[in-house]
TrEMBL record:
Domain Aminotransferase class V, chain residue ranges per copy: 63-228
Alphabetically ordered keywords of this record: Pyridoxal phosphate, Transferase
UniProt KW Cytoplasm keyword: no
Keyword Transferase in annotation: yes
Source domain of life: Eukaryota
Pfam hit, one: Aminotran_5
Gene Ontology molecular function: transferase activity
Name assigned to this protein: PLP-dependent transferase
Species of the source: Hyaloscypha bicolor E
């Protein structure tokens, strides 16, 4: 039976555990879970405390299989093509550290890559002489421009006689919060013989991924703790942290030889295959037990999906509300600030749960003299200003403001979610207007 709770304040009060004074406008970083899912996790943790060995050795594998079976249809993939891992960063590391690299191999990625992923590439370069080629991406830019830059870069590198081994890109960027044309980028990779690795941290529960199995990227991760269940990061899916979907199609599973850390599922090379419990494939078995951690978030996917269906009315209803509240709320905040929401003419970048709102702060362009210098800031001060605004938001207003500097402007990334209303965006618009006024008076420079 469906018991739909109205979105907005009623949803927050009935099903979430936020502090009464806290305004949660940054679901995109770590997500949250409704009380029903947290109660389910607590029940599982109680079972683990009562019979630790029995729960971990016998019960958890069954519960994980149930979660994989629940999430696979949401992605349009076979249940044996998906396993669960702690977070998207682990998934990216698992792929990059399993592939066999040769000196001179190239990884192509965009300048908007998640910082931890770029650092992972750098750490691989300490061991193997591979090259990272970064495509500079400045928003707003239309999808066709992104795809053109991507293709042009790969073809140019290949024309130099180099092997582009892998390309990494997102479903929805961390910043700016923008939907990427990831389906078209996968198509380019297939055409040009390049492996595709998708960081779908903002994926499941944030955008429709039921055709993932049709697009068939080579590797895909997404967080479920944002899924408001959702590596696909299940953050948008509402599972507890950390729970991530790791999708590897059958054709590539032989490339993933070890989990991180290497554990019991690893099989020695050139040896007779070990008999696996329950007839499971080596890939699934590899990730079934990887060191001693709390596996209960993995087992919460069915509970999160049930909440989304029974209480929220299903995936389409959730996406529709989140997209709309982000659109309307972002415009309302921008109106209060006298600025704009980042958008393209086609608005495809806005087909997600984010709104990127410009702050009313001006920064000097290199080599350009500006009048009224007291209200125009040097670009080198952007980091300090962003940190100050974030700090004031936490200490004075009990909220967390995701601030970033992009394309010569400062932005706040606001998340649309089922527990928010337009008045929450109006509230943050007023708070940001006050803080930007204080920045213009130089308060951020004071010790």
């Amino acid at each position: 039976m469906t018991i739909k709770t109205p979105f907005g304040r009623p949803m927050r009060q009935a099903h979430f555990s936020f502090s009464p004074t806290y305004t949660p406008l940054n679901h995109g970083s770590f997500g949250c879970s409704p009380q029903a899912v947290l109660q389910h996790q607590a029940h599982l943790q109680t079972l683990a405390a009562a019979r630790p060995d029995t729960f971990i050795v016998r019960d958890i594998p069954v519960l994980i299989d149930a979660s994989r079976s629940a999430i696979a249809p949401l992605l349009g993939i076979d249940v044996n093509e998906v396993v669960l891992i702690p977070n998207a960063t682990t998934g990216v590391n698992t792929v990059l550290r399993n592939l066999t690299w040769e000196a001179g191999d190239v990884i192509v990625f965009f300048s908007t890559i998640y910082d931890a992923c770029e650092k992972t590439i750098a750490s691989i370069q300490e061991v193997v002489n591979i090259e990272g080629v970064k495509i500079e991406l400045q928003y707003p830019i239309e999808d066709e421009g992104i795809v053109w830059l991507f293709r042009e870069t790969i073809e140019r590198v290949q024309s130099q006689g180099k092997r582009v081994r892998l390309a990494m890109f997102d479903t929805v960027l961390t910043f700016p919060g923008a939907r990427m044309p990831w389906e078209e980028l996968v198509g380019v990779c297939k055409e040009l013989g390049v492996l595709s690795l998708i960081d779908g941290a903002h994926g499941v529960g944030c955008i429709d991924l039921k055709y993932l199995g049709t697009v068939e990227p080579d590797f895909f991760v997404s967080n479920c703790h944002k899924l408001m269940l959702l590596l696909i990061r299940l953050g948008w899916l509402f599972t507890p942290r950390g729970c991530t979907v790791f999708y590897v199609p059958f054709r590539n599973q032989h490339l993933i030889r070890t989990s991180l850390p290497t554990s019991h599922g690893y099989q020695y090379p050139n040896s007779e295959p070990e008999p696996l419990p329950g007839g499971k494939s080596p890939f699934v078995h590899l990730f079934e037990f990887v060191a001693t951690i709390d596996y209960t978030p993995y087992a919460c996917i069915p509970a999160a999906l049930e909440f989304r269906k029974r209480i929220c009315g299903g995936e389409e209803a959730i996406r529709k509300y989140c997209y709309e509240i982000a659109r309307v709320g972002g415009q309302r905040a921008a109106g209060i600030l006298g600025t704009e929401v980042m958008a393209t003419e086609t608005r495809t970048m806005n087909q997600c749960c984010f709104a990127n709102v410009a702050l009313p702060l001006k920064f000097k362009k290199a080599g350009v003299e500006e009048q009224n210098e007291t209200k125009i800031f040097d670009i080198c001060e952007a980091g300090q200003i962003g940190s100050w605004i974030n700090d004031r938001g936490v200490k004075e207003f009990d909220t967390y403001l995701q601030i970033a500097f992009h394309a010569g402007m400062m932005w706040v990334r606001l998340s649309g979610q089922i527990y928010l209303e337009v008045k929450d965006f109006e509230w943050v618009g007023e708070r940001l207007k006050e803080l930007c006024g204080r920045v213009k008076k130089g308060e951020f420079r004071k010790p």
